[in-house]
Specification:
The chain is an alpha/beta fold and about 270 residues long. The chain has helices spanning about 30-45, 65-80, 95-100, 120-125, 150-170, 190-195, 200, 215-220, 230-240, 255-265, and strands spanning about 5-10, 25, 30, 50, 85-90, 105-110, 130-135, 175-180, 210, 245-250. The strands form 2 sheets. An 8-stranded parallel sheet has the order 8-7-6-5-4-1-10-9. Strands 2-3 form a two-stranded antiparallel ribbon. It binds 9-methylguanine. The site of 9-methylguanine has 13 residues, from strand 7.
Length: about 270
């Protein structure tokens, strides 16, 4: 029986690839819009809400910890006050890991796999579960010329090495999640090879997070740059769940949750 969980995405950024600026009015955060969106995500079946203040779309500049904190912390506080759900902080910054934990975040989603100086120590300190994601290079240049001799073996080896670093630092085994990092320094061919190998990531015994929602690989697969990416996102979410993904990170919670509900009744 597939019991995949759904992580709904809240980007408090002016420039994310599919929803940048959605939660800003001018330069102010639209708290009402965020509360309404999270409410509908939870009603639709989201299990976790992931809040980030830095876009990691290809070409994005990195955003300093203070600026991320000014976007993310008030949102986490407001969500904590209004909802009883698991809140995840999407950051690589040690200070924000600590501050987010202190206002109620209970999951760390770090697309840089706790490699920034001090990030691993901060994660150990706050004693929260962590998601380790693979990324080749940084968002600014990661899609310039991604290169691997064997993408699946290299991504898997990286994640296992980061997992070892976490274990050695004192993060318990049952608090470690891994994520192949679709679209993070990967061509379409790399993404497809990784997707076909999700079972190899699952076979490590660590829960696997898959984030393909609205990503470029969908319009590349459909050979249409202006393609609306909803259908492709939902199809890939179902395929990832079938292959054993534990958490799907998605923008379109309602549509994904319905598709997973059908999958659970047909394919068990
Ligand atoms: C923040 N973020 C953007 N894409 C992501 C992905 O594929 N996985 C995870 N864990 N986080 C992501």
């Amino acid at each position: 029986m597939c019991n995949t969980q759904i992580m709904g995405v809240i980007n408090v950024t002016p420039d994310s690839f599919s929803d940048g600026g959605r939660f800003f009015r001018g330069d102010r955060i639209d708290f009402d819009g965020i509360l309404r969106t999270v409410d509908s995500m939870l009603v639709a079946g989201a299990d976790i809400i992931d809040v980030g203040g830095e876009s990691t779309r290809p070409g994005a500049d990195s955003v300093g910890g203070d600026q991320q904190a000014s976007r993310v912390l008030p949102v986490l506080e407001s969500l904590k006050t209004n909802f009883d759900t698991i809140l995840s902080v999407d950051t690589s910054c040690p200070q924000l890991i600590r501050e987010a934990a202190s206002v109620g975040a209970s999951f760390i989603n770090d697309v840089r796999a706790l490699q920034r100086p001090g990030a691993l120590e901060a994660a150990v300190e706050v004693e929260l579960p962590v998601c380790l994601t693979h990324m080749q290079n940084q968002p600014k240049s990661m899609q310039d010329a991604p290169f691997y001799l064997d993408v699946v073996t290299e991504v898997l080896a990286f994640l296992l090495e980061r997992k070892d670093a976490c274990l050695a630092a004192g993060i318990p085994r049952d608090k470690i999640y891994i994520d192949p990092g679709f679209g993070f320094g990967k061509t379409l061919e790399h993404n497809v090879m990784l997707f076909r190998a999700i079972d190899r990531f699952v076979a490590t015994g660590f829960p696997v997070i898959v984030g393909v929602s609205r990503k470029r690989m969908i319009s590349e697969l459909l050979q249409n740059p202006s393609e609306h990416r909803l259908i492709g996102s939902v199809v890939l979410a179902v395929l990832a769940a079938q292959r054993g993904a534990s958490i799907l990170r998605v923008h379109d919670v309602d549509e994904t949750a319905k598709a997973i509900k059908i999958l659970q009744q047909i394919d068990f």
